[in-house]
Amino acid sequence: MQVYVYSDPNTACKAAATIFASTLLEKPDAVFGLATGSTPVPMYQELARMNREGLIDFSQCRTWNLDEYVGLTGDHPASFRYFMDDNLFHHINIPYENTHVPSGVAADMKKEAADYDKAIIEAGGIDVQLLGIGNNGHIGFNEPGAEFVWETHTLKLTENTRMANSRFFEKLDDVPTEAITMGIGNIMQAKRIVFLAFGKAKAEAVRGMVCGSATPSNQSSILRMHRNVQVFLDKEAASLL
Ligand code: GLP
Question: Which of 51, 65, 67, 234 is catalytic?
Answer without folding.
Answer: 67
